[in-house]
Write a structure and sequence with these properties.
The complex is a heterotetramer, with two copies of chain A (158 residues) and two copies of chain B (160 residues).
Chain A (H helix, E strand, L loop, with lengths): L1 H22 L4 E6 L10 E6 L5 E3 L5 H18 L4 E5 L7 H14 L4 E5 L3 H4 L4 E9 L2 E7 L6 E3 L1
Parallel strand pairs in A: 4-5
Antiparallel strand pairs in A: 1-2, 2-3, 6-7, 7-8
Chain B lengths: L1 E8 L8 E4 L4 E5 L6 H11 L29 E9 L6 E9 L4 E5 L2 E3 L1 H10 L9 E2 L6 H4 L2 H10 L2
Antiparallel strand pairs in B: 1-2, 1-4, 4-5, 5-6, 6-7
Classes of the chains: A alpha+beta (158), B alpha+beta (160).
The structure holds adenosine-5'-triphosphate (ATP) (2 copies) and magnesium ion (MG) (2 copies).
C-alpha cells in the first residue's frame, strides 16, 4: 500500500543517511523518489554528497566509493528488516586500508542481528571473524574444507 | 533462524562429502584462487532453491555436478544440505536438494520429500526470499549503484 | 615511443594544473579510494582521442570538466597534454586536447592546431589505435574471458 | 588476408600456451578457431586446462583464474606486437598472494618492450615499480599528484 511504501522509504532514508555518515564522515546521502506523486509506481534513486564535494548520483563515484555506498544502502535496509544471513563474496577487493577498517566496524555492528558468510583475500578483514574456514585443493580439482582455530594457530579438518 | 551447517557431496569441485559448521556471527572463508570458495556460495544458493543456472555460473544444469579430474570420473549426482537452527527453541530444519545427470531432482525438508515450491515457500518464511537482499556475488559489490530506479524500488520493498 | 609526461588542468578532480613525469618501465599509482587515480587514466584516454563519454565514466560531455567543490566554482574548460618521446632520436611530440563547457574543442600536435582525426591518425601510427589492446579498466580484468568470439578475433587482429 | 590471419593465430596460440604454462604450471591453453574453413570470418575461442583439471572455456574459471588467463592472452599478443604503453587499473584486486607474485614476474618480463601504468592497492605489487606516484586530496574534491622516492622514503610534490 502507499502508506507502507512511504513509511519504508522514510525509514531507509534515515538509515542510509546515518550509515553513510559513519562511512564518509562529513558526507550526506538520501533516498529520493523519482515521481513522489505516484507512490505505487515510482522508481527510487540514491544521491550522495561526499565530504566537501557536490551532490551526485552513485554512478559518478570511484570504484571503492561505489562499493561502500552500496553497502551503506544494504545495511540501511537491514536496520529496518535484518536478513537472517548475509553472503558477501570479496566485497573488500576495491577498498583501501581505511575503508576496510570501516567495513569491519559495519560488520561488527550488524553481527548480532545477521549471520555473515564472507569470502576475502584481505588478512585485515579476517580479524573480525568469529570462525575462519580454509578451502584448498590437496588433489587438483578436488576442494576440501578445514576450519582454522586462530587461537591455537593450526588448522584441523572440518 | 541461523545457518548451522552446509553439507556438500558431488557439487562442483566437491566430489568427497564436505561440511562446514558455521557460527552465528561472522564466518570468513579464505583460500587460493580457484580452490572452491565461490563454489561453496553457489552450493548455498542452489540449496536455497536457485533455478537460474547462469546465477550459479554454469551454462547447463549438469555444470553443478562434479565433472571429474585427471583420475576421477564425473559423478552421477550432486547433493547439498542446509541445516538451519530456528530461533525459538533451537529446533533444527534440514533442507536437502539432490540432482542427477539425467535432470531428475529430489527436494527434502527434514527427510520428507517435497516439491521445490514447498522448499522455497518455507525458506521465504525464514526471510530468505529475494536473493539480492542478502547475497552479493563476486565482482558485483558496486551493483547497487548501477541498478535502475525500478530495481532499486523492488529491493527497497523487501525491507518493508 | 614512450609516454614521458601527462599534464592535467581542469580535468575532472584536477582544477590546479598537475603533471606526472613517467619512467620507461613500470609506473605505479597509489592513493586512497576516491582520490583521483582512475581520473588520471581517464585523462590519458581522453588525450588519446576517446570520444565515448561512457568510457570516461560520464553521462554528458561536461562531466570531464572540474565541476566545483564546497569553495571552488566549476571551471570553464579542461585541458590534457600528453608528451611522448619518439624512439629514434629522443624527439618529443606533444598532443594537447582542450574542451570548453559550451562544447567547443581544440586539438594540437606540437602547438599546431589540428583536427581530432589528425590526432588519432598520428597516435595510431605510434601503435595506440584499439584501446582494448592496451587498456584494462577498473573491474574489467576478467573481460577478455567474457568477450564474444568475434570480438576476440578483432582483438587478435590488432597483433598482426 | 587469410595467410596473415592464420599466421597471427598460430603465433598467438604459441605465446598463449607458453605464458599460461608459466602462470599455471602443469596447465595448458590454446587459441581455437570456431570455423577453421572460413578464415576470413571465423570467431576465436580460448580454451584452457588447469593443472589436473579438465579442458574448459574461460567462462567456468574462478574470479582470480579468469583474471590471470585474460592477462596471459593479452601478453601473448604483446609477444607478437608489443603495445608501446599498457594501462592496468587494479587488475590485481581478485588475485591471491601467489598469483600477485606471478603477475609481478610477468610485468618484469615485458617491461623492456612496453611501458606500464598501473594502479594498485597491493603493497606487494608496488615492489616492481620503477616509479611510484601518490594521488591525494589535501582539499576535498581536489586531486594532487606527488612522486614517491622509495629509496629516500619521503614524498615530494610532482
Ligand atoms: N562441475 C564442476 N566440476 C568440477 N570442478 C568444477 C565444476 N564447476 C567448477 N569447477 C571448478 O571450480 C573452480 C572454481 O572455483 P571457485 O570459483 O569456487 O574458486 P574461488 O576459490 O572462488 O577462487 P577466486 O579466489 O579466484 O575467486 C574452477 O577452477 C572450476 O574448474
Ligand atoms: N568533473 C568532475 N569534477 C570534480 N570531481 C569529479 C569530476 N568527475 C569525477 N570527480 C570525482 O572524482 C572522484 C573519483 O575519482 P577516481 O575514480 O579517480 O577515484 P580512484 O582514486 O580511482 O578511487 P578508487 O580507489 O576507489 O578506484 C569522485 O569522488 C568524483 O566525485
Ligand atoms: Mg571466487
Ligand atoms: Mg579507481
Amino acid at each position: 500500500s502507499k502508506k507502507r511504501f512511504s513509511e519504508t522509504v522514510e525509514a531507509v532514508n534515515q538509515g542510509f543517511r546515518e550509515v553513510f555518515a559513519i562511512l564518509f564522515p562529513g558526507g550526506s546521502a538520501e533516498v529520493t523518489l523519482l515521481d513522489p506523486e505516484d507512490l505505487l509506481n515510482t522508481g527510487v534513486e540514491l544521491n550522495v554528497r561526499l565530504p566537501g564535494k557536490r551532490l551526485q548520483n552513485l554512478q559518478l563515484l570511484s570504484g571503492g566509493e561505489k562499493a561502500l555506498a552500496s553497502l551503506a544502502f544494504l545495511f540501511a535496509m537491514f536496520r529496518l528488516k535484518p536478513a537472517p544471513i548475509c553472503v558477501l563474496d570479496e566485497i573488500d577487493a576495491p577498498l583501501d586500508e581505511i575503508n576496510v577498517e570501516s567495513l569491519k566496524k559495519l560488520l561488527k555492528t550488524y553481527e548480532l542481528s545477521t549471520q555473515f558468510i564472507l569470502i576475502t583475500h584481505h588478512p585485515k578483514t579476517m580479524e573480525v571473524a568469529d570462525a575462519v574456514f580454509g578451502i584448498t585443493m590437496k588433489e587438483p580439482g578436488v576442494s576440501t574444507i578445514f576450519s582454522i582455530d586462530r587461537s591455537a594457530g593450526e588448522a584441523s579438518p572440518a | 533462524a541461523y545457518l548451522k551447517k552446509i553439507d556438500l557431496f558431488g557439487f562442483k569441485s566437491f566430489p568427497d562429502r564436505q561440511e562446514m559448521i558455521l557460527k552465528r556471527g561472522i564466518n570468513v572463508i579464505i583460500g587460493p584462487n580457484g580452490s572452491g570458495k565461490s563454489n561453496v556460495l553457489d552450493a548455498l544458493l542452489w540449496g536455497l532453491g536457485e533455478t537460474r543456472i547462469s546465477t550459479l555460473r554454469g551454462t547447463n544444469t549438469q555444470d553443478i555436478i562434479f565433472n571429474g579430474n585427471h583420475r576421477r570420473k564425473p559423478m552421477a549426482s550432486a547433493e547439498v544440505s542446509l541445516v538451519f537452527t530456528l530461533s525459538q527453541d533451537d529446533e533444527e530444519k534440514v533442507f536437502l536438494r539432490k540432482s542427477f545427470r539425467d535432470g531428475e531432482s529430489v527436494f527434502r525438508i527434514n527427510s520428507q520429500k517435497v516439491r521445490l515450491k514447498d522448499l522455497t515457500d518455507d525458506l521465504y518464511s525464514l526471510g530468505l526470499g529475494d536473493r539480492r537482499y542478502f547475497f552479493i556475488e563476486q565482482g558485483m559489490v558496486g551493483s547497487l549503484a548501477t541498478m535502475g530506479p525500478l530495481e532499486k524500488r523492488s529491493l527497497l520493498e523487501e525491507a518493508a
